[in-house]
Design goal:
15 strands, alpha/beta, 34% helix, Dihydrodipicolinate Reductase, domain 2, 2 domains
């Protein structure tokens, strides 16, 4: 099976440090070009990463007939506009999360996808990591009884004014940047959509972005409760509690590529851990898996790991959380 030839929009750190090196190790992915609005930055990244082509504009990359697919790690407010331009240029698109600024934007991207016939998906890399695949399998098999609650947190301390996560008009803030993850994985584990949400957040007085947000998602079968922040100690946690057991992730989101991943399954016989068993997963890179899965969808005509319909539903939850924080009451996910 041939490899999909990828082009990358921009030289964002997530691309140059994590995603590109991982995709270069894929069996179905070839990173063939990179573009930046600063040609020197594109050239430097191409040399350092061994990428054959470097372009001084995004338009030049999209015009390259040898590029099959685009990876879009641009700031959040540029996700949909440049994904649309890539699709209209006949390129398949893997776009970083969150794929849009709101659910309406994602709807517009779905319309373009349907019109152009390309594959477009969101880069929630957790979807393909073996630890999450296994956790979903365990819940569906009834290993923890009936899933009733999900509890988590995700945050870091980045107070720099120039950081794109702290620019409100760019889609910055904790809920968009990291809060989207507990929304995504709780939906994935419950296998349902939230009916109603409650959200509260604090905004930085200078940036206007949310620096601390907490949420309750009411699912038909239970609840998810999480906190996320851009000005808190570095942390990430996620556990799922059922009627007869629970599953806890050691590192839920940023699993170390060259390290062993672990989930703990607890039967709940006591609070000291007598009933805990551990499942380990050999080293793997979730960005490599994501790239290969997306490339396979292109080659075989299947669905990407996270299709835009899933992105739309995730974004509707985030929209409702922002509405709830403003209205100071619960909001229906509509």
């Amino acid at each position: 099976m041939r490899k999909i030839r990828w082009g990358v929009l921009g030289v964002a750190r997530i691309a140059t440090v994590r995603v590109i090196p991982a995709m270069q190790n894929g069996t179905l992915t070839e990173v063939a070009a990179i573009a930046s609005r600063d040609s020197s930055k594109a050239g430097k990244a191409a040399v350092e990463l061994g990428i054959p082509k470097a372009y001084g504009s995004y338009e030049q990359l999209l015009a390259d007939p040898e590029i099959d697919a685009i990876y879009n790690p641009l700031p959040n407010h540029l996700h949909v506009p440049w994904s649309i331009r890539a699709a209209e240029a006949g390129k398949h698109v893997l776009c970083e999360k969150p794929v849009g600024m709101n659910a309406s934007e994602v709807q517009s991207l779905i319309a373009v996808r349907d019109r152009t016939g390309v594959v477009i998906g969101e880069a929630f890399m957790v979807q393909t990591h073996p630890q999450w695949v296994r956790a979903v399998e365990l819940v569906r098999a009834g290993r923890i009884g009936k899933l009733r609650a999900a509890v988590g947190s995700f945050g870091y301390f980045r107070p720099e004014a120039g950081n794109i996560r702290n620019i409100r008009e760019y889609g910055g803030g904790g809920l968009m940047d990291v809060g989207c993850y507990p929304v995504k994985v709780s939906r994935m584990m419950f296998g349902e959509e939230p009916l109603r949400v409650w959200g509260t957040l604090e905004r930085d007085p200078n940036f206007g972005t949310d620096t601390l947000a907490s949420a309750i998602l009411q699912f038909p079968s239970g609840h998810c409760v999480f906190t996320c922040s851009t000005q808190i100690v570095l942390n990430q946690s996620m556990q799922f509690l059922g009627t007869t057991g629970r599953i806890e992730f050691e590192i839920p989101y940023n699993a170390v590529p060259n390290g062993t991943s672990r989930i703990r399954i607890d039967t709940g016989v006591d609070v000291v851990g007598t009933g805990i068993s551990v499942e380990e997963f050999p080293p793997c890179d979730q960005y490599t898996l994501q790239g290969d899965a997306f490339s396979r969808a292109i080659l075989e005509g299947g669905q990407p790991p996270v299709p835009l319909e899933d992105s739309f539903r995730n974004m509707k939850v985030i929209d409702a959380l922002f509405r709830s924080a403003e209205s100071d009451r619960s909001e229906v996910v509509g």
